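S1.2 Input.
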Amino acid sequence: QRQNIGTIRKASLPVVKTRKASLPVVTVRKSSPPDVGPDVKRAKLCDSDDDSREEEVPTAQVALARWWRRQGRNIVVDSLPNSSNPNTRLLHVAKTESAQTFLESEILRLRKKLKSSAGLQKAGLLSALATFYDVRGQYSQAETCLRQSLSLNPASKHTQWLSAKVRKQLDAVDMQIVASKSLGDGKKEGVSFPNPTPVERVSGKSLSAAEFFERYSSTSTPVVLTDVVKDMTPSPWTIEYLRTAIGDKHAPVKRVVPGSAEWAQLETARTMRVSDFINSLEEDINTEQLYLFDWSLPIHCPKLSKELAIPKYFDGDLLKKTPEGSLYRDSWPSLFVAPKGLSGGLHVDAFGSNFWMALFQGRKRWLFFQKEDLPLLYPRYSHSMDPTFDADVFRPDLEKYPLLSLTHPRECVLQPGELLFVPAGCPHRVENLDRSLAVSGNFVDESNFEVAKEELRLNALKDPRSLDLLQQFGDMFIDKRTTIK
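S1.3 Output.
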């Protein structure tokens, strides 16, 4: 979507050629199973849309969903992934020629309506108009509308949030424009993907918590720690042990959807018994590649969680120092169980948090990038402050994404019994080389305290619990020895 870096601010999103459906339009009955094939995908976009709840000034996403349900069903979207996720469907529908025409007509209608509006009504129209420009990739126009809207209604949290999201996208675009000049006026010939630097491995036997903070956490440097995981549980955890310990529990499982608009291209597939999920990990059964992903042990399996001893390097986690019931306090450690071959999309951990993962079974290939590389990875902020990425860093297409040649990748294959530290803001992608079992945690310490507070401030515009956590963080003071006073 952003190949021509120099013209991105003015250019609309590239359109996807559409054709009239040769098959009759399928009417989806209430008894029809969701997402069973391309006909259903064409006929049914957003289960969550509610036409009975009319909004005075609908956003582009709402207007586009309604248009698709009422008029777009005769159009086949060849690129539409096999997904029932509304955000994913809207992302791909918006690229079609017919949808672009609809969005253009809505922009003209809203601009005409602006001429006779004033005050809060005009502020609402400007905010809505900005979402249409945003969907079309006209980010400068979107930012102008949002700035004008906030001048009329500075208290609007919705508009503040939109403005911050669009600003993140524009910052990425600005850096892409600068970076593209170093390629020689956009020439792509001769560029190559850099050879990844190996991630350092250090034994936990000789590394103190203070040394870990000074050498890795405070410098945003990933590291693999050996001789640590074996001391985290009374006896080694295995997938078979989980079957015995928590097999009767029910958990949501994810699946990877290429082209998804969701974080790491992961979408919820369904909820199932843990024992049934473990059974599905057999290669001849798990054809759908289901993933038990980031499932909180303190919340869902408190007894099992008590078996875990968190390594000393994360004792300074401020999330654990908040009052009981606070946001994220009991979210981690969490459980990851994946089939061989599964690979999620490139992503950045949420709310500016640091991340660690202890691997008990299987191997995982990790590819990291510096946080400064983020704009070079072609981030897209579609409906969240957390970016998604179109570029495939495991199979980089430098013709389409030449700025990948300017990144600084690091790589490791995490082995059973090893623990990996991932600094805040570092984009990464993971491939499961074997059936794997891991436990992880997101955390905040002095190294990412200010970044986390800023991300929480933005999230608080939509989420009251983020505001509560932000206020709790505001009551904390961190001195140079990383102690809380």
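S1.4 Remarks. Confidence is low (pLDDT under 50) at residues 1-55, 479-485.
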